[in-house]
Amino acid sequence: MSFQPTQEQKMAAEGLRKLLDNDIEPAFLAHGSGPIPKEMMVGWLKQLAEHGLTNAPHPEQYGGLGLDWVTHLRLYEEVGYSAMDIALPILINCVAADLLIQSAPEHIKERYLSGLLSGDIIASVGISEPDVGSDVAAVKTRAVRDGDDWIINGEKTWISNGELSDFFVCTCKTGEGELTHILLDRKEHPYEVRGIPKMGLNGQSTAQIFLSDVRVPVENTIGGIGAGLKNTLVTFERARVHMGAWGYSIARRAMDEAIKYSQQRTQHGKQIAGHQLIAEKIATMATEIDAARLLGIRAAEMIDLGLRCDKECAMAKWYGTEIAVKATRDALQIHGGNGVTTDFIVERLVREAIIAPIPDGTTEIQKLLIARALTGVQAFR
Ligand SMILES: Cc1cc2nc3c(=O)[nH]c(=O)nc-3n(C[C@H](O)[C@H](O)[C@H](O)COP(=O)(O)OP(=O)(O)OC[C@H]3O[C@@H](n4cnc5c(N)ncnc54)[C@H](O)[C@@H]3O)c2cc1C
User: Fold this and answer.
1) Which residue is closest in CA terms to ligand 1's atom 35?
2) Number of domains comprising the chain
3) Are 139 and 127 in contact (CB under 8 A)?
4) Whose CA is nearest to atom 25 of ligand 1?
5) Domain boundaries, position 67
6) Within this chain, do residues 219 and 350 fall inside the same structural domain, yes or no?
7) Measuring from atom 52 of ligand 1, which residue has the nearest CA?
8) Separation of 365 CA from ligand 1 center, angstroms?
């Protein structure tokens, strides 16, 4: 395992940092906290694709760069550092691309993959429902065969990219204990979408999706009938590595803001960075961010090596997202009263960090997965 980025990874991250610092982050901040219009989001995704996001870890035959997940993760961290509202759509697009590459029939790959990897197309992936959260096997949205079509009925919720996406990979129940992924094209198989206002990350979309007798050709089945649960678990591994990076990228930004502030602000006759209780907070942040990144890089390297890594991905997700909650809170505390105002970005980081321990399996679920891998005994129910 490489602790330090390679020369290529360093150069790629530096190039990306320049684009984010000089162009994308200022435009994102000027836009404000409201929903980012689709054209604006696609514009940013296309610029980022030129720097390896979303395309770095995917095969060249589909428009990817054929690099590794470790490189992708190092680049992903930079986007999260600047704007999680843009990094989250990239996470979903990347995971959807991986799912299509692994499991979709050729005609679906041909139709959607190059656009997805170039940033022109946005995807959604939906498991969660009003009554289905941590227990993913309990999906109720039903797909019933009618000749060469599926007829889909149900309701999905918390669907990232929902309002912006061009297609939606829906996890459907197709038989008793049988889950199947079906791709719905927004234009060809219309469904109703409603945005969900949240405490943060309202630039990107989180939505409810209502499916009422939606007719989709059976040839839009991804991964074969009944493969939905198995493929969801693989998807979760990729998503969880990104989720850990969501956490430590925000934490790193919060730490940098706190360091800057603590050097400038003086109280009791000296810079607050010189007060020991402030110094302790910064030292803890730095150490936890490094630990979280190392967990993430280890999991990504295991994905690259084709090793089983459900436990390692769960560790990366749990630890990265939880240290973000702590680090952003401490960064706000270091800002004192200024921290709660919208003049300083730490208040936004706190709101974005506290969301991270929930999607793609809550912290509690990650701990159950880790313990099950170690003991062989499941504690889910
Ligand atoms: C911003 C955001 C984006 C999301 N994006 C997507 C998306 O794109 N696609 C998608 O399908 N879903 C998405 N989700 C949904 C997300 O995956 C679920 O919210 C998550 O899995 C938890 O499910 P739940 O909210 O129903 O909570 P519940 O499952 O109801 O859990 C409630 C609480 O009970 C705990 N709990 C549940 N079961 C156990 C147990 N066995 N032991 C101990 N504690 C337990 C949980 O940890 C949690 O604290 C998103 C959610 C958010 C907030």
Assistant:
1) 364
2) 3
3) yes
4) 133
5) 7-121
6) no
7) 359
8) 9
What is residue 380's predicted lDDT score, i.e. its pLDDT?
Answer: 85
Pocket of ligand 1 (CB under 6 A): 92, 125-128, 133-134, 158-160, 206, 355, 358-362, 364-365, 368, 380
- Tens-digit pLDDT profile for residues 60-91: 999 999 999 999 999 999 999 999 999 999 99
Q: Residue 364 CA: which ligand 1 atom is closest? A: 47
Contact residues for 7 (Cβ-Cβ < 8 A; gap 6+) = none
N-to-C CA span, the chain: 36
Classify residue 342: in a domain, yes or no.
yes
Q: What is the pLDDT of residue 113?
A: 97
Alpha-carbon span 323 to 320, nearest angstrom: 6
Domain presence at residue 318: yes
CB atoms within 10 A of CB 290: 13
Structural domain ending residue among the three candidates 74, 106, 121: 121
**Judgement on whether residues 315 and 293 belong to the same structural domain of the protein:** yes
Give me the residues paired with residue 215 across strands: 151
> Is residue 381 in some structural domain?
no
> Of 167, 198, 226, which one is at a domain's C-terminal end?
226
From 93, 127, 131, 158, give the residue whose CB has the most ligand 1 atoms within 8 Å, as the site to mutate.
158
Q: How far is ligand 1, taken at its centre, from the CA of residue 359, in Å?
A: 6
Same domain, 40 and 72: yes
Q: What is the CATH number of the domain that holds 94?
A: 1.10.540.10
Location of structure tokens 């170039």: 118
Q: Atom 23 (ligand 1): residue with closest C-alpha?
A: 133
Q: Are residues 117 and 128 in the same domain?
A: no
361 alpha carbon – ligand 1 mean position (Å): 6
What residue's CA is closest to ligand 1, atom 38? 134
- Give 45-62 as a DSSP string: HHHHHTTTTTTTTS-GGG
For the stretch 22-43, pLDDT in tens is 999 999 999 998 999 999 999 9
Q: Are residues 241 and 368 in the same domain?
A: yes
DSSP alpha helices (H): ranges in 146-210? none
